[in-house]
Amino acid sequence: MSAVVARVHSSLGLVLGVAALVSCSHRAGTQEESDALGGGAGTRNTGSGGVQSAGAGSNSGGASGAGVSGSTSLGGATPGGSGGAALTGGTGPMPPGQGGSATGGGGGAAGAAGATNGAIPATCQGAFTKVALDGARSTLTVDRASSLGELPHFWTTYGIGHMALFRQEEKDWGKTLKAHVIDGVQNLGLKSIRAHGLFHDDLAMYREESGTPVYDFTRSDEIFDFLVKQGVAPIVELASMPAALAKNPSQVWSLWKMGISPPKDYKRWQELVFKFVEHSVQRYGAEAVAKWYFEVWNEPECCGGQFWKGTLDDYFQLYDYAAAGVLAALPTARVGGPVASQPVELTQNTEVGKKFLQHVTTDNYVKPGTPGHLDVFMFHTWNFVDGSVNGYFAGLDLLDSFGLKSTPVAVTEFGPTWEFNLKDEPQENEHGAAFVAQTYADIAQRCARDKKRFPIAYAWWTLSDIFKEDNYREGDPFIGAMGLISRENIRKPAYNAYKFLAQMGDEQVALTAMGSGIGGMAARDANGGVQVLVYNGQSPGKGPVDHKFYTVADAQDIALTVSGLTADLPYDVSAYRVDATHGNAYAVWQTQGRPAMTAMSDANWTALRDAMDAKAEPMAQSQCGSAYTGRFSLASPGVLFLKLTPTPAKSMTR
Description:
By secondary structure, this protein is of the alpha/beta class.
């Protein structure tokens, strides 16, 4: 893919008027909480470009977003939201794995407007400012008073790569990977991870002595103890055949020696699975392990035997014996397959999805003549927007055709491309951020509209650049890999998109978009807040098929209206953007001339860290009305996130 051209975008527009004016008393202004992970609550990056808000109290010290016109930034204390983990680090060059550590961010005081113990209810400081919407190229309308039903947060699972990386001592990368998981838990809403290589020989779980199986969970316990402590309920990939159990131990995947042979004895394979699940139940409790999912193998049909040297029938036998082992240890456990590499493989080419369902609904290698067991249908959607969105619904349609109309889907890998080391890897730049927003928004909108079941998981591959597949640029700060966070703790644009998703409410409300390439979704929360996620993704290509992603286009004006607000409830309103000039460390690295690690100066690293977070652009503070309207400028590819949060009550404590 050709280099993405950084573009200077026109300014983020001012907020517009409301249907009813509210007479309000003056009070000291408060400010949206800091979203910069590098500091505690209340941290702000100062500069020109804030937004003048009618009736604002204090006008000092606020966050300012570059490119915002008519600026006076809002000041005040940080009243709301919880502090997250901060990946702290110095401003100088940091070798891999030494760019920082996960620490707790400052805590914010939660609360909606209205009296709480020892607090003064927030009061309006004026009506939402009125600004003309005429001439905007695109229009979005959100109705807070509507309800499209529950909005499951199906974006809280992340891929990790090779599981043994949690133990990697080289450059302390194992510690860095754990720090990235903690960051994900605290800032991205991470609830689950999925990794390769549970039964790989580097974890030494299985061996044979004089032909007798011996099990050792010492190394895997170290990893799962960490995950359970963080509240993570993993999707456990039951894969990599131990050499001692392999029919042909020489059959391995070259990059990290994953065993890809069928087992020499399927009953011993079943016992291995049983022993791991039994041990997990004994160590963590049945209640905890029942929240996990067990996924049998990875992409068995893919790439001419790259990940599985057996036939599809051999895989179905592997699946049946694995499911029997899981359920023997924990009858309430949840098991799934066939983990196809792309949606097209479900019904075309290898037809692994169709053949798998034909098998599991009619036969079982463990108990021949009886149906097998399937709790969740698992596959991957490696193909740009068409695969990531339409591919999900193709999986649902296939399930429905077999009468499995309540069986859920878990997409356990997805991304804009499966290719590493592109000159401009879309996972590392603004294309990845827009792709994240579009995938989840389009699926959520379509599920609500067509009354389809939501995914139970839709996992980005991967959370971290601590990753053991060697097709990347070792000498660069951005290595051409797929992580949301680099090895030096630089957060990429897609990280910001996931941070926006983590703040979405649990009830979807109606969003209507008019304009080419513009879309999104909206939600409300129990405290009266509204969250709007918008993407601009012009003319998407076919990703890895034609090496085209989104068309790069100058910013366009978007007119956005949020109706159905409580007219006398004061709101704080903030906008955030990710595009070529906002929340984008990769774009800054490009402007630096793409220096190698050895050429990165202290100033280079500081510039990347200053640019990596999407900064809050305050739009209104303690303002009221039954409708909020705003005019926003967003480039392609790009993401806009708008938060309307009831102004918190003011503490009486001095």
